[in-house]
Amino acid sequence: MDIQLEKISEHVGDTGDFIKVDSEKCNGCGQCALVCVANLWLIRKGKAILKDDYTKKCLECAACYSVCDIGAIEFSYPRGGTGVVYLKG
Amino acid sequence: MTEYDVIIVGAGPGGSVSAKFCAEAGLKTVFFERGRKPGEKNASGCGLGPRMWREFPEMMKRLTPDVAPNLRMASCVINHYLNKEMEEIAVEMYYPTASVTYEPAKKFITMNCYRSEFDPWISSLAVEAGAELRTSTLIKDLIKDDKGKTIGVQTDTGEKIFGKIIIGADGVISTVAIRSGLNPRWRPDQITLVPQYDFSAPPDIIDKMFGSDGLFRDAADGTWWGVTFPSAYQVIFGDGFHIGLGAWMGQWTSNPINFLNKLISSRPFQRMVKALNAKPREIQTHLLPWTQEPIKTYTDNVMLVGDAGGFPCPLEAEGVFPAMETGKLAAETAIKCIADGDTSKQGLKLYEEKWRKSSTGIEFSTGGETLQRLWKNLFFSVQSEKNNMEWFIPLYHEIRGGHFDWSEPHIIRMRQILETVRSYIPQAMPFFQKYVIPLISDVIEEDLNLLPLFIKLTEGLRPKKKK
Ligand SMILES: Cc1cc2nc3c(=O)[nH]c(=O)nc-3n(C[C@H](O)[C@H](O)[C@H](O)COP(=O)(O)OP(=O)(O)OC[C@H]3O[C@@H](n4cnc5c(N)ncnc54)[C@H](O)[C@@H]3O)c2cc1C
């Protein structure tokens, strides 16, 4: 079964940036990319980078932040009333 | 400057119940929700356990199809077993057994309700009781006094709100837990990552299959066990169902969605999708604390309830009831401590004393660790070096299903089954010794005198003369 996740998730409002990577700290281990269900991470030249449109696709689970044990990822939820919306959660 | 008696962060089941009981006792109460309305940020199975009806009878009486149109009763769970090739080799169904002691637990295992229907309803009870609900408001930080004690919260627009007590009901990534220092960070073995698909399905077909007069009477809960994916759950509602699976952080060997996609693409799952005329409707992903022991849940002026405190039960991570119960106990503590004028950690220690004695606390009192070790090393072992599902599924299949067979004289069939079972003993025995026996000895309260019983049973086994 081939499901395109973007087609079955809804996002509202202007979230602003809410995930930041400290590229000094990042060791490129790739755990964030491994666990991101929405597939929003790339590893380039040994560093994790977020895809440009992540704010419109992020499911806000915070797995990337939680799995990064060197603390290179800063996560805060998007501003109130914006971001992913679960209609049937 | 606004000052409240109680500030609650989060309008999930924990926050809303806290807010309701605080407001009913006349405390000036506010609760904050980052979503535009409660529920729109949350994803659960979402099967509601019967303890909610026992502990909150007046409230739960009011959860009806008027407020939650897709509410569906699950009196039975259907377990599906898939082999390595992802074909179904066994299905079983169980309704509540004779040892269940109370209504409505005799009637149902769970009541299934979308969070998008449950959370607005439960938060409305708090508002009705006089609590102030502020939605679309993200709490970004805590405000501390010069001694480092929490005295308020700050929103994402910089607004400051002060209160005597702050209850963190803000779920797994809890700003209150992080900023108060109670839980700066979860260890990877304390939290699971759970992706879940929501499928739509026509209500009349769901009724025919899983309704009270359906083919599988009220069987609206399902589990999927396999050799190649972590155990999955299915929860059926009025107009669709959830299918999800999870594992602890740091345990994933491939993207979680790959495992879920593998399951939903399997032939048995696709047969069900076809029979139900089901369509993928939404993808949801959420973290879920699943720990052997809650974290420290109080400090000066602060208490943590529900997921923020790590309260989902250690065996199956049922978390809605624990959130509600701890929410109520935190409210009772707040009411007393505010009346006594002592909201310091000495005063709030009462909260932990209360939850330890509660239904939620009992889950952790004995066996939390052994339960979880068993669980992790069996149903969630597919990504580890020792995938115990590889022998468990065929062994279970053999024991439960082997005798439904007329392929040989019965005596020969029985020998075939016994020999096959015996061939799994080298793997099963150490597993039982390491994970099952310690659990049984944790669980048994009084001496049930099982040992003499076993000895007596084996006494009947006569050694055979060689022919
Ligand atoms: C996929 C999945 C399936 C599950 N299935 C079941 C099940 O079938 N049965 C069951 O009993 N349990 C289940 N659970 C567990 C259950 O969902 C949780 O234990 C329960 O929701 C915890 O309730 P809570 O009130 O503590 O937190 P939550 O329900 O997470 O509520 C927290 C609320 O706070 C808000 N919030 C968070 N941070 C902030 C902030 N900084 N400012 C303002 N608002 C904020 C959130 O938007 C949210 O509404 C499941 C969990 C998952 C992830």
Please sum up the structure shown.
Chain A has 89 residues and is of the alpha+beta class. Chain A contains two helices and six strands. The mean pLDDT of chain A is 97.
Please supply descriptive tags for the structure shown above:
A: 89 residues; alpha+beta; Alpha-Beta Plaits; two-stranded antiparallel sheet; 2 helices; 22% strand; B: 467 residues; FAD/NAD(P)-binding domain; eight-stranded mixed β-sheet; 37% helix; globular; binds flavin-adenine dinucleotide
Largest pleated sheet of chain A = 2 strands, antiparallel
Report the sheet-strand fraction of chain A.
Answer: 15-25%
Strand content of chain B: 15-25%
According to CATH, the fold-level topology of the domain at 25-77 in chain A is Alpha-Beta Plaits
**Measured distance between first and last alpha carbons of chain B:** 95 Å
Major sheet: arrangement of strands of chain A: 1-6
What is the second-level CATH architecture of the domain at 2-70 and 111-185 and 293-366 in chain B?
3-Layer(bba) Sandwich
CATH architecture name of the domain at 25-77 in chain A: 2-Layer Sandwich
- CATH topology of the domain at 2-70 and 111-185 and 293-366 in chain B, by name, is FAD/NAD(P)-binding domain
Rg of chain B is 24 Å
The CATH top-level class label of the domain at 2-70 and 111-185 and 293-366 in chain B:
Alpha Beta
